[in-house]
Amino acid sequence: MAIEDKSSKRISFIFLSIMALFWILPLLWVLSTSLKPESQAISWPIRWIPETLTFQNYQDVLMRQDVPVLRWFWNSFFVATIHTGLMLLFNSMSAYAFARLKFRGRDVLFWGLMATMMIPPVMNLVPLYGLISSIGWVNNYAALIFPGLGGVFGIFLLRQFFIGIPHELEEAARMDGASPFFIYWKIILPLAKPALIVLALFTFMGNWNDYLWPLIVTTSADMRTLPVGLAIMQGQFNIQFAKLMAATILSAIPVIILFMFAQKFIVKGIALSGIKG
Question: pLDDT band at residue 277, thresholds of 50, 70 and 90?
Answer without folding.
Answer: very low
